[in-house]
């Protein structure tokens, strides 16, 4: 790597004024109370709600950061469980910052970075992810040569060989998991309908590095980031469109200052196209649906309305808003790679979200995040629920007349 992506690094000590000042007011445990109608859904910290102990709420993790600085607490299995069962969903910061201007989610992220530097993080269950990234350049351990196969016969340019105005960055899960092919192909059909000149990097596309950031391994992340930025800039694209919200978050917060192209999530691009009349969904899709805000797309990037605009434009869909939505949205359970270490816990969170869909009588939960789609489907199955989980790009592609499934 020629140079560090981040020339000035934040460390846990930079947020001393946050974790020393935290007064345990409990704002981080719940939602904005005036924005949730039913008392059943006031809680919003997954790990705190599940484990019912102060340490698992953001306020407890702030106390851990303070105690570790004072030498009152040493790294242990118990501390690691607290730190890595957090979903990094950002709900605590959503509640805390407007009132007290503190960054509890950032403190937890930096606790993980400190754990990695000191050698007690991440957890053994996370090792396969890191090994796959080292050996295969993707977190799933799949052959890189197969990364672009999902787009076969879609007529997309090979952006590593010829210039395209729009570079579509699919991400690891959309690229390699067959059950997500319909969503990726639906997004392409919709983007092509706008008249966009689209290319993909295929086998030259690397993991965005989001899993490494979430686990706290920033050194390894920066290697992926530097190489990705180099390859993306070499395409000469003017716009990079991401499918996965985790890629979107990394691109927006880490890559953007170093990229020569604008970056948008596909839902933003397609909502704009709808508003301009470039695409017009016409095929009816009969279902009652509720939109699940992915944490990285919603709370992290503030992208709330574009997906709702897309769903509202699809004929036949009956709109249901979940009790916890927008900034109050509940994590699916996969955030922070907590599900990889604690699958029973991840599914527990997913089941709660499925219950919420049942509560508002939605037949389908719709999202754009492959992590959310996978875990919510697992939660529905584990709960024995009739609620189905679908992807917004699949629904839009179908409504535009595409054969995407």
Structure description:
- This protein is α/β, with parallel strands linked by helices and 405 residues long.
- The chain folds into 3 domains: 12-121, no CATH class; 126-274, Rossmann fold (3-Layer(aba) Sandwich), CATH 3.40.50; 275-399, Rossmann fold.
- It has helices at 16-21, 46-51, 58-70, 77-84, 91-100, 104-118, 127-136, 172-176, 181-193, 210-215, 218-235, 245-255, 266-275, 296-300, 305-313, 338-341, 343-359, 370-383, 392-399, and strands spanning 157-158, 166-169, 198-200, 239-242, 262-265, 287-291, 317-320, 364-367, 388-391.
- The strands form 2 sheets. The chain has a 5-stranded parallel β-sheet. It has a 4-stranded parallel β-sheet with strand order 7-6-8-9, with helices on both faces.
- Helix 18 links the parallel strand 8 and strand 9.
- Helix 3 packs across helix 6 (104-118), helix 9 (181-193) crosses helix 19 (392-399) and helix 13 (266-275) packs across helix 15 (305-313).
- It is globular, with a radius of gyration of 21 Å.
- The two termini are 40 Å apart.
- The model has no long low-confidence stretch (mean pLDDT 94).
